[in-house]
Amino acid sequence: MGSFLENIQERFFRGFWNPFMVLIFAGIFAAFYFGLTGTLWAVTGEFTRWGGNLLQLFGVDPSHWAYYKAIKLQGEPIDRTDGWLVIGMLFGGLLSALMSQNFKLKMPRQKRRWAWGFVGGLLAGFGTRLAMGCNLAAFFTGLPQFSLHSWLFIAGTALGTYLGVKLAVLPIFKGQPKVEFGLRPAKATSPNPNGHRKQLYIGAIVFVIIVLIAIYYFAIGKAMLGFAVLFGGAFGMLIQRGQLCFTSGLRDLWLTGRGTLAKAIIIGMAIQTVGTAIFIFKGAQPVIHWASLGSLIGGVMFGVGIVIAGGCETGWMYRLMEGQVQFISVGLGNVVGATILAYSWDHWGVFDALVKGSPEINLVSSLGWGGAIVCTGAFLFLLYLLVVWREKVYSKKMNQAHIPTSKKTTA
Amino acid sequence: MSIKKQDQVLVSGSLDVRGESCPYPELYTLDAIKQLESGQILEVIADCPQSFINVPESAEKHGHKVLNTVKNGSTSYFYIQVK
């Protein structure tokens, strides 16, 4: 058993998976998940319902709030496909972290991370629900639905992450690195597989749990819940193995000029667009949301929030499963932020001010199939060009900056 | 670590970012590199899986050389020679 697991680890979990491969698979799975269940790979709607369920635990029933009526607050997380999708993702991330020995409980060195994680999570949670979707439903899985609201959200997120980066490098967010000077020997190789097999065994148990839950729901005739936990598990594994962090994909464009992940995300969306187009053409109902000022503003808030928090709605899930405890505060921030938005929707007039009257624009019905596909393709191509341009600008800037450093004396 | 080996590499500075999550391991590394002289070696100790990708990639992008990476369980040690 142990050596069997080690074989699996050696073959599949040794290094991270190529981000392009991961995003292509994520795109294909996302299209099939939509085709099978009619719902999207999405998480924040469910976070909002968690907030509602939590309020119910404390005796407040928010199910008559307009927002909860719109997103249907019924039952508990385990009664909903979205609920099982989220739980499946957490399990899948955990499984993947264990199998690849990436699991380690760790606390942030700088206490400020807890606070900024919560603040950033709160901003991002509020913004995503204002926009009706996060980096999934208004971005990765939203654009392939031909819903114009995701275009606005993507533009907002690009701007927001840019602003976020300006903040994140300020001393109050960044803190100071401590370098210890003084000569010391480097570590040579270290074959030290302590606790090595234990992680593999726990990983195997997590795998069995996912499968058993799915079998249970298939057996009692709730196949959708079974699919949700299986797809969730697959998504969770993919995001951990590919370190599929949308925050990093966008932020690093501005911060360190690295565009690999952003390119992979764009390609994953292109492939998914083809898949969803086929399902919609065959009669599946696309998921379209209001293309409103709220989508744009929500995108900006989301962009700023995820950079400050260090993780988006999918990022914190797999990071937490890797044992990075600080991401609890990001997740909590998301739930609180989303719940505040749900309250403000009708109580503070957010809907009336930012969303009301905005059309739900479905590109397929407005432009026809040809127009919708050409426009979506052109938009993705434009995004791709932007990424390439950013990489170019950054390396140019870096080369210039490095000319004076060559005067440094050699040690 | 205590046993002296042949052709042992000596590091001039050590940056321990265990517990930190991205982007800070990467940003701290780039900052720390600036504090060293050309040719010196910086040790970076990290345990955030994302940084296993970001730290060496970013260092190389900035023209520094990643001499060696040692993985010890879920902690990685990077040895970066400043250009």
Let me know the average pLDDT of chain B.
85
Structural class of chain B: alpha+beta
- Biggest sheet of chain B, open or closed, and with what strands and sense? 4 strands, mixed
Q: How many DSSP E strands of chain A?
A: 1
Tally of domains of chain A: 1
Helix proportion range of chain B: 25-40%
Structural class of chain A: mainly alpha
Level-1 CATH class name of chain B: Alpha Beta
What helical percentage do the residues of chain A reach? 55-70%
Distance between the ends of chain A: 52 Å
Radius of gyration of chain A: 22 Å
From the spread of the alpha carbons, the general shape of chain A counts as: globular
Q: Give the terminus-to-terminus CA distance of chain B.
A: 26 Å
Family (chain B): Belongs to the sulfur carrier protein TusA family.
Domain UPF0033 (chain B): 15-39
InterPro entries (chain B): TusA-like, TusA-like_sf
Protein name (chain B): SirA-like protein
Question: Main attributes?
Answer:
heterodimer, A: 411 residues, mainly alpha, 18 helices, 69% helix, disordered C terminus, B: 83 residues, alpha+beta, Translation Initiation Factor IF3, four-stranded mixed beta sheet, 2 helices, globular, cell inner membrane (chain A), Sulf_transp_TsuA/YedE (chain A)
Describe the protein.
The complex is a heterodimer of chains A (about 400) and B (about 80). Chain A has about 400 residues and is mostly helical. Chain A has one domain. Chain A is built from 18 helices and one strand. In chain B, about 30% of the residues lie in helices and about 35% in strands. With about 80 residues, chain B is an alpha+beta fold. Chain B is globular and about 30 Å long. Chain B has two helices and four strands; from the N terminus they run βαβαββ. Chains A and B meet through β1, α12 and α18 of A and β1, α1, β2, α2 and β3 of B.
